[in-house]
């Protein structure tokens, strides 16, 4: 039976008598784990920031009434030419409105679905901004500001003013930062909006919006739904788009198909709309975890080399231990204990060092137009990273100690003493 008190005492003496080698082995574990924690926390934090840039502003499902040419042309319906091959050139879209028929009942129906976190209306229209002699083409979107903030983090992109100001101000408008810059406008100023029909409406600027996408900020503005309906000369049932937020983003595609079949509308899920971005995210995550895993493996080989050399330097001690009655298994346990002590101490120091490094990075100023609310470099403090780090430290030192200790277990003390 193994006497663990004696085994651990001998392991402790071995570690303390070769304190420099012990420190080097422990530091190898420490910096390996610290580098892993720092890299994976920083890279996944950046990836999350880039994901938020798109996902925060994009509905899980975008529902609208797409105007497209009739699939069956009149000539195909004529009985005489039923079995003929007809060619029709310059097909025009059928005469229809952009609005969604029965939009309000559809929104109520979607909001009552257990899979839907929220479904909200929008009105989109092409306009011209007029300020003095400057005319600028753009888009205006009628929204429910508070619901947009609740479901799509709209408030995070309002750099001046607030969604509440837009809701409470009649004939108010939030203009894009690019529009404001081009037309020298600020909060409190007035801008005239001209529709494609030529109607002109004066609006008061209650805030500045910045999405981080320069092309969008140069044309986009927002007003409340009632004001948008007034500008377009439409009634309160006029809605052109419905944005849906789900509890589970993975169910977006089948739910979009269901909406299309049920209401005869076009429904685009978030993954279809952002397929290229989704691919980029997958590749970035793959690179992050591959590099992190490589760091851990390199650290593991470093630990193995150090422990292997430690055993070769302890040949005389091994011979003496076996000569005074210690079995091969006892010798193996001594070196395994040393490896595990180095792994546990070095692992926890690595977690602490990684936490310190990530907190330092988290205080470094970082300003980007893409996310106005971000002030420092983003760090992902996921507890799983720390759990993986300490588990790997223990497992890697276990195997790094096990393989050399197998050699120590089989050493013949007579040969070593005779060689002296």
Descriptive overview:
Helix content is 55%, strand content 16%. The protein is α+β, with helices and mostly antiparallel strands and 420 residues long. The protein has two domains: 4-55 and 278-419, no CATH class; 61-79 and 94-270, no CATH class. Strands 2-3-8-5-7-6 form a six-stranded mixed barrel. Strand 2 and strand 3 (134-143) form a beta hairpin. The mean pLDDT is 80.
What are the main properties of this structure?
420 residues; 55% helix; six-stranded mixed barrel; alpha+beta
- Helices and strands, in order, run as HHEHHEEHEHEHEEHEHEHEHHHHHH
Cα shape: elongated
Beta-strand segment tally = 10
Distance between the termini: 31 Å
Strand content: 15-25%
Mean of pLDDT: 80
Please identify the structural class as seen in this structure. alpha+beta
CA radius of gyration is 34 Å
How are the SSEs ordered, and which strands pair?
Layout: H1 4-17, H2 19-55, E1 61-64, H3 74-77, H4 103-111, E2 116-131, E3 134-143, H5 145-152, E4 158-160, H6 163-168, E5 172-176, H7 177-182, E6 190-195, E7 200-209, H8 214-217, E8 220-224, H9 225-232, E9 241-246, H10 252-263, E10 266-269, H11 270-273, H12 275-313, H13 315-323, H14 328-361, H15 383-410, H16 413-419
Parallel strand pairs: 3-8, 5-7
Antiparallel strand pairs: 1-9, 1-10, 2-3, 2-6, 2-9, 4-7, 5-8, 6-7
Helix pairs in contact: 1-14, 2-12, 2-14, 2-15, 12-15, 13-16, 14-15
């Amino acid at each position: 039976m193994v006497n663990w008190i004696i085994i651990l005492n001998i392991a402790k003496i071995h570690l303390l008598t070769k304190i420099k080698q012990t420190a080097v082995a422990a530091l190898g574990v420490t910096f390996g784990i610290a580098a892993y924690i720092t890299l994976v926390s920083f890279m996944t934090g950046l990836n999350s920031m880039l994901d938020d840039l798109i996902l925060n502003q994009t509905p899980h499902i975008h529902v609208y009434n797409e105007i497209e040419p009739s699939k069956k042309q009149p000539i195909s319906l004529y009985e005489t030419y039923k079995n003929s091959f007809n060619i029709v050139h310059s097909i025009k879209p059928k005469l229809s409105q952009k609005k969604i028929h029965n939009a309000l009942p559809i929104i109520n129906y979607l909001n009552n679905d257990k899979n839907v976190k929220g479904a909200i209306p929008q009105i989109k229209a092409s306009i011209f901004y007029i300020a003095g002699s400057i005319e600028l083409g753009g888009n205006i979107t009628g929204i429910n500001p508070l619901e947009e903030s609740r479901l799509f983090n709209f408030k995070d992109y309002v750099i001046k003013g607030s969604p509440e100001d837009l809701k409470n101000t009649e004939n108010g408008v939030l203009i894009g930062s690019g529009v404001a810059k081009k037309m020298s406008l600020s909060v409190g100023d007035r801008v005239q909006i001209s529709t494609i029909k030529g109607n002109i409406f004066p609006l008061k600027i209650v805030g500045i919006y910045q999405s981080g996408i320069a092309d969008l900020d140069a044309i986009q503005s927002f007003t409340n739904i009632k004001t948008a309906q007034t500008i377009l000369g439409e009634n309160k049932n006029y809605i052109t788009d419905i944005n849906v937020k789900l509890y589970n983003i993975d169910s977006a595609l089948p739910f979009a198909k269901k909406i299309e079949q049920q209401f005869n509308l076009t429904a685009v899920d978030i993954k279809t709309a952002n397929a290229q971005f989704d691919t980029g995210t997958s590749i970035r995550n793959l690179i992050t975890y591959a590099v992190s895993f490589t760091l851990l493996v390199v650290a593991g080989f470093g630990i193995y080399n150090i422990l292997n050399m430690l055993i070769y330097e302890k040949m005389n001690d091994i011979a003496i231990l076996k000569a005074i009655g210690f079995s091969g298994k006892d010798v193996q346990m001594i070196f395994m204990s040393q490896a595990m002590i180095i792994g546990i101490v070095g692992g926890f120091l690595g977690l602490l060092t990684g936490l310190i490094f990530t907190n330092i990075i988290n205080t470094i100023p970082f300003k980007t137009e893409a996310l106005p609310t971000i002030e420092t470099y983003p760090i992902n403090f996921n507890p799983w990273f720390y759990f993986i780090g300490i588990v790997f430290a223990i497992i890697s030192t276990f195997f790094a100690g096990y393989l050399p200790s197998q050699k120590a277990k089989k050493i013949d003390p007579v040969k070593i003493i005779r060689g002296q």
